[in-house]
């Protein structure tokens, strides 16, 4: 029998990142598939099950022994019941994913949230390694966070912890998809940055281009970028006040701006800190592998707990 690995699946709105990961957290094999969310929830679930089957077969072909499955998905997740309660961008509504995967693959399965899974990986294997309390904030199309203490992520009573993107930082600000106005996500997500620049400059640009234009001296881009930094600093200060982390890890698409984001954000946070203990500020280290590694860690933890349900 070959070396033990776990099957890891990171389901996103557009793509599914998959891996076979050993007990040390090393990726032994990886592949990617389109989610196909436009086909509807049932088709997405069927695709996940087929992909899982394929990964198990691949593991055996490579001489590896699959022992468990970890899967992370966006939205509201009931990790205890193993149910994807709600995920708009993949169409899930009360989908018992854990049960479906266990029945199809015959392997113990752990279900988790995409941002909390990525935050767990960053805490144990990435930029937060060595810190007891990690607060990982992922800034992409939306904004969400994971609070990880002693290597364990906090999910909240209803599986909805970490929604820092829906803290109101600009009262009467731009409308947010949640129904509020001025949420951090509505001002400082990558989508919001691109949208605001497009409205003001009269031409389309993504957040990455806005960051580059700001550095190059484009006045509209510079204004939008500074507004983004200020809003992020205000939102993160609330996170610091609530959670008192040792380190703030910033990831997601916006973090790809590197020092263009991290340096002014560090300065803005420092200028706002009063009684708070200022945490380390670090850029996420695992890139888009964080999710699949987080899913793998959930599976490995499941094996370690001796719980197969």
**CATH topology type of the largest domain:** Nucleotidyltransferase, domain 5
The assigned structural class equals: alpha/beta
CA radius of gyration is 20 Å
Got a strand count?
Answer: 13
Sequence of secondary-structure elements: EEEHEEEEHEHEEEHHHHEHEH
Helix content: 40-55%
Q: Choose one word for the global shape.
A: globular
Strand content: 15-25%
> Superfamily at the CATH H level of the largest domain?
ATPase, nucleotide binding domain
Characterize the main sheet: 5 strands, mixed
Question: Which regions have little confidence, pLDDT < 50, spanning 5+ residues?
Answer: none
Structure description:
The protein is of the alpha/beta class and about 300 residues long. It folds into two domains: about 5-115, Nucleotidyltransferase, domain 5 (2-Layer Sandwich); about 125-285, ATPase, nucleotide binding domain (Nucleotidyltransferase, domain 5). The protein has helices at about 40-60, 95-105, 115-125, 185-190, 190-200, 205-215, 220-245, 260-270, 290-305; strands at about 5-10, 15-20, 25-35, 65-75, 75-80, 85, 90-95, 110-115, 135-140, 145-150, 150-155, 245-250, 280-285.
């Amino acid at each position: 029998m070959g070396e033990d690995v776990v099957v890891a699946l990171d389901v996103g709105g557009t793509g599914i990142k998959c891996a076979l990961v050993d007990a040390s957290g090393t990726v032994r094999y990886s592949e990617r598939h389109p989610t196909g969310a436009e086909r509807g929830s049932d088709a997405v679930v069927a695709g996940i099950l087929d992909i899982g089957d394929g990964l198990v077969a691949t593991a055996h072909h490579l001489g590896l022994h699959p022992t468990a499955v970890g899967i992370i998905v966006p939205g509201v997740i009931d990790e205890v019941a193993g149910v994807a309660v709600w995920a708009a961008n993949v169409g899930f509504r009360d989908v018992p994913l854990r049960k479906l995967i266990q029945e199809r693959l015959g392997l113990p399965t752990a279900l988790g949230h995409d941002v909390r899974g990525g935050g767990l990986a960053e805490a144990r294997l990435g930029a937060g390694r060595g810190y007891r309390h990690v607060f990982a904030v992922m800034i992409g199309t939306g904004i969400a966070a994971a609070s990880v203490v002693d290597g364990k992520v906090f999910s909240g009573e209803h599986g909805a912890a970490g929604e820092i993107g829906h803290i109101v930082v600009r009262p009467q600000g731009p409308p947010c998809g949640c129904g509020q106005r001025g949420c951090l996500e509505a001002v400082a997500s990558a989508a919001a940055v691109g949208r605001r620049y497009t409205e003001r400059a009269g031409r389309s640009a993504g957040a990455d281009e806005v960051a580059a234009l700001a550095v190059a001296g484009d006045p509209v881009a510079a204004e939008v970028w500074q507004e983004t930094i200020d809003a992020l600093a205000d939102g993160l200060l609330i996170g610091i006040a609530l959670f008192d982390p040792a380190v703030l890890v910033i990831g997601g698409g916006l973090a790809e701006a590197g020092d263009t984001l991290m340096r002014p954000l560090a300065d803005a946070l420092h200028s706002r800190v009063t009684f708070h203990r200022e945490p380390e500020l670090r850029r996420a280290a695992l890139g888009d592998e964080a999710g699949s590694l987080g899913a793998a860690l959930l599976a490995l933890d499941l094996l370690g707990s001796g719980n197969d349900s």
